[in-house]
Automatic annotation (TrEMBL):
GO terms for cellular component: cytoplasm. Keywords: Hydrolase, Nucleotide metabolism. It comes from Nitrosomonas communis. It holds the Pfam family Ham1p_like. One of its GO terms (biological process) is nucleoside triphosphate catabolic process. This is XTP/dITP diphosphohydrolase. It comes from the Bacteria. InterPro entries: ITPase-like_fam (IPR029001), RdgB/HAM1 (IPR002637). GO terms for molecular function: nucleoside triphosphate diphosphatase activity. The keyword Hydrolase applies. Belongs to the HAM1 NTPase family. CDD domains: HAM1 (cd00515). The keyword Electron transport does not apply.
Length: 183
């Protein structure tokens, strides 16, 4: 089965292909630009994005949004994670979290799939902590500042092992189950 994936991020595309490929889903990247609404409400953001993507592509498509939710920042940045990250980057992000009084964080992925008739949502989350200093490669957004519970390394340091335990993996597993059941 072939499904369009709205993304131009090569890291996300590789992760998605590695997870969905073995269950028979051929991921076709759709690197079109969609203006995202800015909101803390991730499901609303994903709904808006997948509807815009389907309107432009005209075929079944899925989108994903992954955000960090920090108790020390009253759940922020959530749906606004990309804005926070673009402004702060790794070192300033770690400093902000340290100053918040809590290094706890939950990473959540929401996938929206539009098949022309309906929108379906699939979610995954992983709890963890923000380290004292960023660790590992810094080329994939905040992977260098997220240590999943039960690990001593950041997602960036874990490399491909991240795909076995990530929030995106969990959401994609739910999506794959839906696809395999024939929708």
């Amino acid at each position: 089965m072939e499904i369009r994936f709205l993304s131009s991020n090569v890291h996300k595309i590789r992760e998605v292909e590695a997870i969905l490929g073995p269950v028979g889903v051929q991921v076709v990247p759709a690197p079109i630009k969609i203006e995202e609404i800015q909101t803390e409400d991730v499901q609303r953001l994903v709904r808006d994005k997948v509807l815009k993507a389907f309107e432009r592509i005209g075929r079944p498509v899925f989108v994903e949004h992954t955000g960090l939710h920090l108790p020390g920042l009253n759940g922020l940045p959530g749906g606004l994670t990309q804005i926070f990250w673009d402004r702060l980057q790794a070192d300033s992000f770690v400093t902000l979290v340290k100053n918040s009084g809590s290094r706890l964080v939950t990473a959540k992925t929401v996938i929206g799939y539009c098949d022309s008739q309906n929108i379906h949502y699939f979610e995954g989350e992983v709890s963890g902590t923000v380290p004292d200093i960023p660790a590992g490669p810094r080329d994939f957004q905040w992977d260098c500042v997220f240590i999943p519970d039960g690990c001593s390394q950041t997602f960036a340091e874990l490399g491909d092992k991240k795909n076995e335990i990530s929030m995106r993996r969990r959401a994609l597993d739910h999506f794959a189950t839906y696809i395999q059941r024939g929708r």
